[in-house]
Amino acid sequence: MVKVIIYTGLSLPFNEAKEIFDSHDDVDVIYKKPIKRGDLGLDLKERPDIIAIIDGVFHQNSAVGHKEILNVMKNGIKVFGASSMGALRASELDELGMIGIGYVYSQYASGEVESDDDVAVMLDSETLEPLSEPLINMKYVFSNAVSEGIINEEEKEELLNITKKTYYPQRNYAKTLAESNLNDSTKEKLIDFIRMSPDIKKEDAKDLLRHIKDLTE
Question: What predicted TM-score, i.e. pTM, was given to this entire model?
Answer without folding.
Answer: 0.93
